[in-house]
Structure formats: structure tokens, C-alpha cells
């Protein structure tokens, strides 16, 4: 039974070696990102900045969220040919949410409105990502006190989602539930 133990040790060592090699490759890729070399460098940098933008504000607060998403957006817009505008849409929506949490409601709503416009331009009317971006924007409008505009947007969204996705789809039911809730609360 001793050989089996040795075999396991060699497999374990192989996995450790593979992990080290993978880390070395990752570090080499990150090094290329910082020097601007290598294909896909923008995507790797964008992914790293995305992770920072998602997690840092949860620790350091809304102002840090605005800073992180703003930097991510600058980079994504500069590299748009390689990264695509979908990152810009997502970034604008998230930055808007953090701006609102940081107390700058007007800037937050503007960022979220731009996210809807960019999604509409990029994806086209009726696309699921456009509907989801509008859903988040409608909630932000409602929470900011723009209740009539929020209700109109959510009502149109519920109708469009019902036609395109079906009445049983989660987005349709969530939109209709928001409308019921908003109607009940006045």
C-alpha cells in the first residue's frame, strides 16, 4: 500500500505545480496588461477593474463605488472597440446606483438614464437587457420621488415584457408587482 501513498503525493505535487504554473501565466498576463502588450489585455484589465468596482464599495462605502465605477467606465469607453458597449451599459447602471447611495440622486438618475439609452442603441428595442436596465431605472426613479415617470416607465415595461417574454416571465411578474405595490402606496 505504500506505492499508493507515493502516487497520491506525486499527483498532489503535480496539482501544486500546475497551480504555480497557472499563477505564473496569470502574472505574466497581468504584466502584459500593465505594459499594454498582448491580445485581450483590455479584457483582463476590465475584468480586474470590474471585480474591484463590485467589491470595494461594499467595504469602503458608496463614494468609493462611484470612484471605482467611474474609472471602469473611463477604461471601458476608451477600449470600446475591444470590450463592447455592454460593459458601458452595465457600468453606467451600477455607477448610477452608487451615486444615488452616495447622495447624488440627480447624477445617479442621469447615469441610469444614459445606461438605458446606451442599451437601447446597442441592443435594440425589446431586447431583454434593455428591459432589465429600464426596470432598474424605473425603481430608481420611484425611490427618488419621480413616481409618475417611474409608473409610466414600469407600466410600458410590463406591457412590453408581457408581449415579448410572456406573462409568466419573472421580469413581467416583477414589473406588474411593482406597479401594484406603487398603486397601493399612493
UniProtKB/TrEMBL annotation:
It comes from the Bacteria. SUPFAM superfamilies: TPR-like (SSF48452). This is Tetratricopeptide repeat protein. It comes from Catellatospora bangladeshensis.
Amino acid at each position: 500500500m505504500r506505492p499508493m501513498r507515493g502516487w497520491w503525493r506525486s499527483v498532489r505535487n503535480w496539482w501544486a505545480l500546475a497551480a504555480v504554473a497557472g499563477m505564473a501565466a496569470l502574472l505574466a498576463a497581468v504584466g502584459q496588461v500593465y505594459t499594454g502588450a498582448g491580445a485581450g489585455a483590455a479584457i483582463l484589465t476590465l475584468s480586474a477593474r470590474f471585480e474591484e468596482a463590485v467589491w470595494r464599495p461594499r467595504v469602503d462605502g458608496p463614494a468609493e463605488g462611484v470612484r471605482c465605477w467611474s474609472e471602469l467606465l473611463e477604461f471601458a469607453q476608451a477600449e470600446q472597440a475591444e470590450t463592447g458597449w455592454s460593459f458601458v451599459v452595465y457600468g453606467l447602471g451600477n455607477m448610477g446606483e452608487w451615486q444615488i447611495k452616495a447622495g447624488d440622486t440627480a447624477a445617479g438618475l442621469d447615469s441610469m438614464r444614459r445606461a438605458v439609452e446606451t442599451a437601447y442603441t446597442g441592443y435594440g428595442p425589446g431586447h431583454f437587457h434593455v428591459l432589465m436596465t429600464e426596470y432598474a431605472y424605473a425603481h430608481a426613479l420611484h425611490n427618488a420621488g419621480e413616481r409618475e415617470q417611474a409608473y409610466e416607465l414600469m407600466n410600458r415595461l410590463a406591457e412590453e415584457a408581457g408581449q415579448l417574454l410572456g406573462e409568466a416571465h419573472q421580469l413581467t411578474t416583477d414589473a406588474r408587482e411593482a406597479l401594484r405595490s406603487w398603486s397601493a402606496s399612493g
